[in-house]
Amino acid sequence: MPLRLPPDNGLIKFYGFPITKKFLVDYATRYVPADLLAQSPDWLITGHGFTLLRWYSRISNLMIEGAMPSPGTPVDYLLLDGVLEILSLRSNERDSYRSRPAQENVDYPAKLIGKESVSPQWWDDFNDPRIYL
């Protein structure tokens, strides 16, 4: 069954999985050589983790996006300002939706982040849509 776009509520929506900075750091620590990590500031270690996920998933438009949390979102997934970070596989924007990955490319990132039993879902962008004009 093809992926359907969510109802339009005026916000950009991202399709993906919640992710934490801790997960990205742990992922980088697992796969990046220790000498490279030792030279990297904390913010760059997070970037290493994300870059590895993008490479391994082969989804070129994989992004980390800020989204509105849904009720019941675990607190450890929220940033200080209440934003939920999403590992976004696509958005409801025309170009992103047209270039959406095949189902196998959706399943593989789920496996990489240990969420094989969880389906990605649509999340509302945290930013006001006027910011993109």
What does this entry show, briefly?
This protein is of the alpha+beta class. It has helices spanning 21-31, 34-38, 42-57, 94-98, 103-112; strands spanning 13-18, 63-67, 84-91, 121-124.
Give a verbal description of the structure.
This protein is α+β, with helices and mostly antiparallel strands and about 130 residues long. It has one domain (about 15-130). The chain is about 35% helix and about 15% strand. A 4-stranded antiparallel β-sheet has the order 2-3-1-4. Helix 1 packs across helix 3 (about 40-55). The mean pLDDT is about 85.
Any key phrases for this structure?
4-stranded antiparallel beta sheet, globular, 133 residues, 5 helices, 17% strand, 35% helix, alpha+beta, single chain
Mean pLDDT: 87
Number of strands: 4
Overall tally of structural domains: 1
Question: How much helix, percentage-wise, in residues?
Answer: 25-40%
Give the assembly state of these chains: single chain
Please summarize the sheet with the most strands: 4 strands, antiparallel
Distance between the termini: 33 Å
Number of helices: 5
The assigned structural class equals alpha+beta
Shape: globular
Q: Strands of the biggest beta sheet: in what spatial order? A: 2-3-1-4
Written as H for each helix and E for each strand, in order along the chain, the element string is: EHHHEEHHE
Proportion of residues in extended strands = 15-25%
Structural Rg = 15 Å
Q: Which ranges are low-confidence, i.e. pLDDT below 50, for 5 or more consecutive residues?
A: none
